[in-house]
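Case study B.
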Amino acid sequence: MSKRIDVDHLNVFYGDFLAVEDVSMTIEAKSVTALIGPSGCGKSTFLRTLNRMHEVIPGARVEGSVVVDGQNLYASEVDPVEVRRQVGMVFQRPNPFPTMSIAENVLAGVKLNNSRISKSDAEELVEGSLRGANLWNEVKDRLDRPGSSLSGGQQQRLCIARAIAVKPQVVLMDEPCSALDPISTLAIEDLIAELKNDYTIVIVTHNMQQAARVSDRTAFFNIAGTGKPGRLIEMDDTATMFSSPSEKATEDYISGRFG
Amino acid sequence: MTTPTPLARAATSAPLEPEPQTPSPLAPRGGRLPRYVPYAVGAASLVFAYLLLLVVASPGIPSVVASAAALYAVAITIVSRVVEGHRWAVDRLATTLVTFAFAVALIPLVSLLWTVGSKGAALFSAEFLTTDMVGVFGDMTSGGVAHAIVGTLAVTATAALISVPIGLLTAIYLVEYGRGRVAKGITFLVDVMTGIPSIVAGLFAFALFTLIMGPAYRSGFMGAVALAVLMTPVVIRSVEEMLRLVPNELREAAYALGVPKWLTIVKVVLRTAVAGIVTGIMLAVARVIGETAPLLITVGILTRSSWNVLEGRMATLPVFAYNQYQQGGVGVDRAWAAALTLILIVMILNLAARMISRVFAPKGAAH
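Model:
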């Protein structure tokens, strides 16, 4: 179910403004890749280009290519809606649909697409996805309650269950723990470690310890100054990145001597 | 409750208060006024205002209440300033002014409801609601508004049928798709349309149908077109506001699941905003249901019920009220009763809208 991603000379523009410049990287299948770097360095923007979510913002466009499973996502015949079915996304703030119950939230990817699903298949999908997100035991008795009745950490796991219910190949996570307490964060990190067995995961995080804990490979983005584009400085195995990075900027950032 | 300190200049004026305790930096002044003080000051203001007016003029209820209100505002501020200090005095004054402003705003509303209710009650009855004006002449007190209720509902429903889809789709375009000059132009035109006087809308519909159908044509549909011209901008504006309130995160969540944009709009954006949309549409209906001028020249008046909006005159409540009031005599009573009927219809529609909103509202964590 997982695929490797090859990014080649990617430039991201907002209108005329070059936000991310010349990123080339390979994201291995069935691994966790962490993107770290200071605020505004373009790591979230870059993440969004991996499932064409940046196109939601008017004027955003991309040069270069992102190849998933031999298919360039930016080829002219590719439908962005199909891309997002293959490459799911979890956002910074938990955003369950307020009009839907817990079960309906999990089924949102099916229901919102007007797809028909039998009752038993639906129940199976709900249970499987919630188990996959480590949430089943906590909510199995109240599946028809509103998704917003859960705590923040549970809501975020509900959003992960919703993302994996459409059976994507890649799951993108944009600072998934930044709005959560340490215990919920731990639950999500454990979950990421399990999801790695089935999915390719790319996670943006501001928490260096988190990057060190959950990821196999780490990419460091930096920005030369306000108004300058963000760049990929270095990418390596997480252990190497945190022990002996080859770039001075990476070492400064990781050890807290940034700037 | 209070802890008077040496700083409290008026500590001696509160014999009911406990003995001074250790001063705390958190309660540096002379403590708070007891709860009954505002009421006592209010009663004293009323008595004093009455006596004062007795001396200088003859006291009536409005003049006594108005001068008592002014007296109260001054008195409570001074008392509070002396006992509680500057900040609390300002707070009391602001509270007093805001409360009075609210009361003043309520006066016309209550007065209007009271006037319509009491004058309309003279003829208002089940019979009044269920009979029409066929065969009612001169000073006869029989007859009713059944035909006008039918007409008002038919014409307003037709107007809503025209303007709700247009308004809804325009609002969706403006919020979800519109960019640049086109959207700005539409927003500007909607703002201009909001200001169109109702008689202009009536004349527009009249001119339009005269060109197409000939000068003798009168119908409920013609009136509905006039009302739709007035209603559409209100629908656009309110739906637009509601759609903008839907968090972008929900749209992104749907996109990230591979849901196409149009399905996201239908199943997430509209679904989340439906409670507000229903309320907005009901406000737009309430805005046009009492319109008289455009209906007077397009729909006219009739003495019997007609459900046919496409052909012929119809009776409507506002025009019926206007017509009866002009005739004088018992017609004036009918006009008031018709006005009462109209207010009741608007009220029922609003209640229905609230119930619909409650059913569809997003369920919060409290449920």
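Residues 1-14 of chain B have pLDDT under 50 and may be disordered. The remaining cases will be described in the next quarterly update.
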